[in-house]
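Lab notebook, bench 4. The sequencing result for the construct came back, and we need a structural model before the next group meeting so we can plan mutations. Quick request posted to the team channel:

Model the 3D structure of this chain.
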Amino acid sequence: MNKNSLEEASENISNVIYQAVLNPHFDKAKIVEVCDASKQKGFAGLCTSLVNLPIARERLGSKSNTKLVSVIAFPFGFIPTFNKQKEAEYAIEKGAEELDLVPNYFALIEDKIELFAEEINQISELGIPVRVIIDSNILFNLSKLSIAIDALIDSGAIGIQIGNGFGPTITRDQINYVSKIVKNRCSIKTVGGIKTYDQAIEIIEAGSTYIGTSFGFELTKEQKKRSR
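Done. Here's the predicted structure in token form:
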């Protein structure tokens, strides 16, 4: 259990929420609305796409406690490292404070661990924190999860994101397993199907540091109702 994160979540769930703004059908008004509300709620972070970064940076401003995060090569990572680096450089130029990177799964599956790690290291050296997105539902089945986690930590990543918002909901048992591999060497953000306050607390209790969700506002409302 991540006691610090659990205490923060129990006190104010906003402290551990990374609000996702990745719906490709959002218009500018909706993006502005979510950014403004995320800043007001004091969410830990707001994660969005490259194209939305300028709007999000403007709305969050320069003194917000809500970190602006950009996804890189999302959702499948099917682009060369050169292109990922260009995406990362653009994100930094537009004000991103953290990067959520989809790694080279092909290299990992083919046991080319050095290639997998080298790409992560290259992006990490650009100067802002990098979190690596792991499609745990695939890697659990392939017994590659431990190898991937060790490699990304050694390559300079500050965190791991379990899940990408597609597929089955991430379970408590999966996070507990990941937490035992991580051994407090990096942060853990869990993404995928977290829509209720009870789900969020359960995942934090299992060892997650943060929650990534599109339902951040619903979680805060639910916590507020319970505290009355």
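The chain has eleven helices and eight strands.
Will bring this to the meeting.
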